[in-house]
Design a protein that fits this description.
By secondary structure, this protein is an alpha/beta fold. About 35% of the residues lie in helices and about 20% in strands. It has an eight-stranded parallel beta sheet with strand order 1-8-7-6-5-4-3-2. α4 links the parallel β4 and β5. It is globular, with a radius of gyration of 17 Å. Its cofactor is Zn(2+); Mn(2+); Fe(2+); a divalent metal cation. Belongs to the ribulose-phosphate 3-epimerase family. Its EC number is 5.1.3.1.
Length: about 230
């Protein structure tokens, strides 16, 4: 599949969200961080803002729920217009049931893992999901430095996806920028959340294109390396 860039509005100007959404309309998704000041130590926005954003942009919404009790709240984000809804493995009481409910309502179902949460215990759940999000910072705040120690976890997640022959996406979120996106792509990620790297740029749309090009180049190089040297005849 084509690599995808999902700019995070956590780094946008909240007083101008409609304009900020339009500034990245060449992106594949618009990443919306929902925080409740309980699961993570920050408070952002909720269902009404997601619903308003959905009316203000044609870019599909990728909602990342960093909240307690996603089993109760996640379906409401689908109803508000989200095309993809991510819940945290650490917060969901019944992740399989929740993923099926999200899918049944018409959105892609995704599960996120904090940096300290391994992927292996959730291997059997992968067929129920459309995407796995490996957090490359501790969730809660934008602008954090990328954690290189997450690269093996990204690789392991890609191995498990390939092992089961699944057509699912592997997203990374946290510190993704021009200096880190290639490492993420080489490790196997194919959906990249970028906040300050996009909204901190003079031209956010151009930043999206440049990030996609960097990821594509790194992915192509990794595939060539995996295929090994070719023998000239």
């Amino acid at each position: 599949m084509a690599l995808q860039i999902s700019p995070s509005i956590l780094s946008a100007d909240f007083a101008r969200l409609a304009e900020e959404a339009k500034a990245v309309e060449g992106a594949d998704w618009l990443h919306v961080d929902v925080m409740d000041n309980h699961f993570v130590p920050n408070l952002t926005l909720g269902v009404p803002v997601v619903e308003a954003l959905g009316k203000a942009t044609d870019t599909p919404l990728d909602c990342h729920l960093m909240i307690e009790d996603p089993d109760r709240w996640a379906p409401q984000y689908v109803e508000a217009g989200a095309g993809s809804v991510t819940f945290h493995a650490e917060a969901a009481a019944a992740p399989v049931r929740l993923a099926r409910e999200i899918r049944a309502k018409g959105a892609r179902a995704s599960m996120a893992l904090k940096p300290a949460t391994p992927i292996d215990p959730f291997e059997d759940l992968l067929p129920e999901l459309d995407m796995v999000l490996v957090m490359t910072v501790e969730p809660g705040f934008g602008g954090q430095a990328f954690l290189d120690i997450m690269l093996p976890k990204i690789r392991r997640t890609r191995e498990l996806i390939s092992k089961h022959g699944l057509e699912m996406w592997l997203q990374v979120d946290g510190g993704v920028s021009a200096s880190t996106i290639e490492r993420c792509a080489e490790a196997g990620a194919d959906v990249f959340v970028a906040g300050s790297a996009v909204y901190g740029a003079d031209d956010p749309a151009k930043a999206v294109r440049e990030l996609r090009d960097l990821a594509q180049g790194a992915t192509s190089a990794a595939r060539r390396a995996a295929d090994g040297p070719t023998t000239a005849r």
